[in-house]
């Protein structure tokens, strides 16, 4: 266990004006995040617009992240497909490139039953010898994972973690009680990170950490030191940005924030549109407010 821990940001997919991956910007972003203390990188999440990228673009994003990391932190790309075969193909490719794990997502068009859901994850785990963090997000996915299913698939040695975006602490406590020795649990939202780590969680997969890495790492470190009151103050400050983050499309918001920090990440992928000037101001004001590490009473 404990394959992954700490703060693992979901990184964006920077694009040039002609739609190619902006390799220099992506490499610079990965290097800067590592220098600021993150403990892993996850390309191809929702924050990275995985659903909008071509297969060639996805491959290049993972290649650049692996090259930039150079083994300093694990690269754990998202793997998502409506078919088991598609997910296995992605996972095998990313392992060949150098990924040290994957975040497994079940996309679905038609609703699936419990056995079909279990088979999807177990078939990937059987086909690819990589540690897998299962991601469940009922707000975005047609098919959610029950506690029974989570604890069943956790018996597989390659399924090592759960990123649960339900924000239901009772659900997470049930999972921890039933399969804590088999499954690491990770926070998935800025308002629950301290609670998850306090309950025994191993860290935080975080979209906002892409633009607030130092603050996110400070929150995690405060938790590990047992400075819960201080950690809660940081979480409250970060939540101000997360409220804005949740108001707009994820990539549009994070790309606007990164643009304000000097990263030429380009626009979100069409048909998404960039934020207008008023929205950009809201985002940058919230980012500035959350950037301070001075958390006075």
Outline of the structure:
It contains eleven helices and seven strands. It has helices at residues 23-35, 55-69, 84-97, 114-127, 147-153, 169-179, 193-198, 213-224, 228-247, 250-260, 277-291; strands at residues 6-9, 78-81, 102-106, 132-136, 159-164, 184-187, 203-206.
What is the average per-residue confidence, as pLDDT, rounded to a whole number?
93
- The number of helical segments is 11
Question: What would the principal axes of the Cα set say about the shape?
Answer: globular
SSE arrangement, N to C: EHHEHEHEHEHEHEHHHH
> What Rg do the Cα atoms give?
18 Å
DSSP strand count: 7
Profile the largest sheet: 7 strands, parallel
Strand content: 5-15%
- What is the CA-CA span between the terminal residues? 38 Å
Strand-pairing-aware structural class: alpha/beta
Low-confidence parts lasting 5 or more residues at pLDDT below 50? none
Spatial arrangement of strands, main beta sheet: 1-7-6-5-4-3-2
